[in-house]
Design a protein that fits this description.
Number of helices: 4
Helix content: 25-40%
Low-confidence stretches: 1-29, 62-70
Strand content: 25-35%
Number of strands: 11
Strand order of the largest sheet: 7-2-5-4-3-6-1-8-10-11-9
Distance between the termini: 104 Å
Structural class: alpha+beta
Length: about 270
């Protein structure tokens, strides 16, 4: 073998070594070991799970922070509703006991000036039977048509006055006025007015405003008062605040009943 052929063989050998080294380097750069690929995939999965947990926790916290705020708003609104309800339904009632020195055959008139004004009368005898009467708020005199000796007189704007003719005026020595009691009672007539507005979709929102209830809340007024219904369906997922109070309710015939009224508010 001559020197020239030996030289070519040596060059081929060294070239093959260089190419082999380059091939190994490229494989190291281009190829990704399986362990590294799995590690990166696990990191991505962990990030996704962490984000989902964070989002769920944030929603959970916002939901349960929001609910107590809404419930607290409903609870604070109960007192406002109660006060506004009383303002809208309370009415003055004056109760007077009257005793005559002797029965009167005909209609009689007595002076009650200074006791009440802007009122009408209901009169009952000691057996609580209704007696014909008429109260003149301008003069403060009342006419009573009865031959009994003892009477209960009720004066209130809710009553309907009778219409009695001429009556004999009694002098103060012929009768005795007993206790005079002034009360604030709930008017049945005014409750019925509220009920009408409550059950009218066109007036419900205005009624809420009148009663001091926020637009994002709803309410009901539950009571055992005859023929009064102010209730609506409450969503199952809402929590209501409710309180019950006792009131004296005055009817147009002068009867007074003790009734419970429950105020309920929910978001």
């Amino acid at each position: 073998m001559n020197k020239k052929s030996q030289s070519h063989q040596s060059e081929g050998y060294f070239l093959s070594l260089k190419l082999g080294r380059r091939t190994k380097r490229c494989s190291k750069l281009q190829g990704i070991p399986p362990s590294l690929s799995n590690k990166k995939g696990a990191q991505h999965l962990e990030m996704i799970i962490a984000f989902m947990l964070f989002a769920s926790f944030s929603f959970f916290m916002l939901y349960f922070i929001h609910i107590p705020k809404q419930n607290k708003l409903a609870e604070s609104s109960i007192d406002i509703l109660k006060n506004k309800f009383e303002h809208e339904t309370y009415i003055n009632l004056t109760k007077i006991s009257l005793k005559l020195s002797s029965p009167q055959v005909n209609c009689f008139l007595i002076d009650l000036a200074g006791i009440d004004s802007n009122a009408k009368s209901i009169v009952r005898d000691e057996s609580y039977s209704l007696i014909s009467s008429s109260f003149d708020s301008n003069s403060g005199t009342i006419k009573i048509n009865s031959n009994k000796e003892f009477f209960f007189i009720y004066l209130s704007p809710d009553f309907i006055n009778g219409n009695l003719g001429e009556c004999n005026e009694l002098q103060s020595e012929n009768y005795e006025i007993g206790g005079v009691e002034k009360l604030n009672v709930v008017s049945y007539k005014k409750i019925k007015d509220l009920e009408s507005k409550y059950n009218d979709n066109n007036q419900y929102e205005n009624l809420k405003s009148t009663l001091g209830i926020s637009s994002n809340l709803d309410f009901s007024i539950k009571t055992n008062i005859k023929d009064v219904t102010m209730e609506t369906a409450q969503p199952e997922d809402s929590v209501a605040a409710a309180s019950t109070f006792t009131y004296q309710v005055l009817y147009s015939d002068g009867k007074i009943e003790i009734k419970e009224i429950t105020f309920k508010i929910w978001p």
